[in-house]
Queue: 3 jobs
Job 1
Amino acid sequence: VKAGELTRAEAGEMIAGLEARIAEHAKGGDRDGKPSKADLAERKAAFLEDLTAKVKAGELTRAEAGEMIAGLKARIAEHAK
């Protein structure tokens, strides 16, 4: 967004899509309401595939994709506390 290569709306759409996928997978979670390791691995793979495709299509830079991955990791770490 800062580099002008992605609009706030596009970034918002990507985040909303990720949140929707997370919510959908959470429905199939285990007994304590958390998604299974397989679900988490599937979501991670889908997220990374989507970012890779956007970088290849010129919609995101590698740096932007890296920032998105870092942000996601930070949110995951915060939820793990």
Job 2
Amino acid sequence: MALFYNNTQVSTTQNVYLNSQASNQVFYNNNLVWKKTFQAFPGVTWQHNTNLNDGGGGRGAESRQTDQVLVLNGGYNGSSAQCALWVDFTPWKTLTINVNDGTCSYAQFRFGVASGWTNLYGANKIKMWENNNIVSWNPVGSKSLDISDVSGGNNIVIYLYSGSTVGANWVHINSVVLS
């Protein structure tokens, strides 16, 4: 997709106005040629939290960010790591994350929308992509969640829980995009 104005390509992070109205999409001859995105990571500072008693007597959980990677290490034996970013979801339809490295065994991995970010269950959970697998699996790749029915201000939350006593679970996320 590409939209050009005066021979200059319009970035998907910029605004396009048609008839003085901001647009999230531009169509030409019924074909989508441009769609606005919000790069939630990298470039924005996230909140981070760890819980060493998330279902056990855990250790080693870590949540942090560098310039290029959100690092979540679930640690061992019932600990978890999570990060969150407050966003107005009203103009967006899809939440996509890209995990570029990681390993998971006896883990829970979730990302999505929550009203709070210290508890992803019950009333706080609005919409989540979840893998609650109890055996080894590869978290690497792009994962998307339809958020077209979510509006208003809420948190993007990414959560990794480790139930393993012998191997730490970790993921490196190199992009989070709303489109």
Job 3
Amino acid sequence: YWKFTVPKETQCICINCSSDAMLRNIMSFAVVSSENDIRKFYDVCLGNKESFLPIPGSYKTNEKNYSVTLKNLKPGKTYYLCAYKGGALFSSSEYFVQTIITW
């Protein structure tokens, strides 16, 4: 997952994420507002009956590219972009996933 904080002067962010060829077409993405929801996202991807609350408009499955604009976010609040691939929740330090977050 990637942790980011919304700048104090905005309520909107844009996220663009793409993976290398090894991961394409088999990834799931979500933006969540708590560390607890990171684990719930992982459980849902594994097929467990757990549920989580993604930021509205942010949940996508089986994508090679992920692009979303999120509005009405809380300035100064930290959010988490989660990515899942076939049995592993991972971070940018473990796999090549290019992520750009702008506001």
